[in-house]
User: Fold this.
Amino acid sequence: MMIQDSYGRKIEYLRLSVTDLCNYRCIYCMPEEGVCKKAHSDILSIEEMTEIVRAAHALGIKKIRLTGGEPLVRRGIITLCENIKAIDPEIELGITTNGSLLAPMAKDLKAAGVDRLNISLDSLDPETFRTITRGGDLQDVLNGIRAAQAAGFDNIKINAVLLKGINEKDILDLIRLTKDETIHVRFIELMPLGVAKHWNSDRFISTEAIEKHMINADLIKIDGVARVYRLPGHKGTVGLICPMSNSFCPTCNKIRVTADGKLKPCLHSDQEIDLRGLHGEALTQAIRDGITQKPESHHFGAADAATERFMNEIGG
Ligand code: SAM
Ligand code: SF4
Assistant:
């Protein structure tokens, strides 16, 4: 089975937000006071999430990424991973995490069938890290990365959001992580979403700021939304993701489902399709409708077009 949207894009990838709660409060993602905890009954249960994944898979979705909020604070996350792999062991299952709770969970995640880990890490300086995450301890994340490697996760991706005047000085340190290990660092442009929607552009840095460090690097591939380079002699790679300076919409193959069960055809749009309470053919049809309604491109340029949801609700 294969499903295309109205613009001929093959849709194969579902990002599922398993909670909107998080143990961090990153300055560009969440308000300082956090978010109102949704009623337990408003959030999809593990069984409902499994059902959505099953229906999406039947339509041709091959790749699932669990995100949040922080997916590792979600009770039942290991069971959800096992359920997804039980639908089809060939599903590529990834998790995007802040890494802070990974150390004690890495082995169980591996055993549950998780194939890939993306760890968000914007700075290797403990103070800058604490400032960005509003109180996070860098060492927890570094321990999480080591534990994940020991559990057998190869090719870990580190995602770093670029923030002018805050973590520019950390760019070289982050690039250096790719030297001796097969770690893949991806620099991501700040998007005007959630908290950052109301920031002016002073904090924005284009990925062009990284390109000057890539002069001797080989452009090895275009991987979905990322341009991927390898520096001479480095084992890992450096990827640049530039939704702002270079639209990735023509190659977008994703749909998203929020923790309260809304299918979002586009990250940036307010359009949502409620999947809660749907089963069987009705659920399949709603997912099909969402795919058909994917817009051709996002409208980051238009001030009134962005979604009002915070990124911890959408999942990045
Ligand atoms: N808590 C997990 C984590 O931090 O990896 C998963 C959820 S988080 C919302 C997913 C990704 O979205 C993170 O890599 C985060 O840096 C990114 N993100 C959040 N707000 C963003 C923004 N305004 N622009 C670009 N990336 C953003
Ligand atoms: Fe939490 Fe991830 Fe948002 Fe940071 S980026 S506040 S870790 S959900």
Q: What stands out?
A: Residues 46-59 form the longest helix (14 residues). Residues 22, 24-26, 29-30, 68-70, 98, 120, 311-312 surround iron/sulfur cluster (ligand 2) (CB under 6 Å). The chain has nine helices and twelve strands.
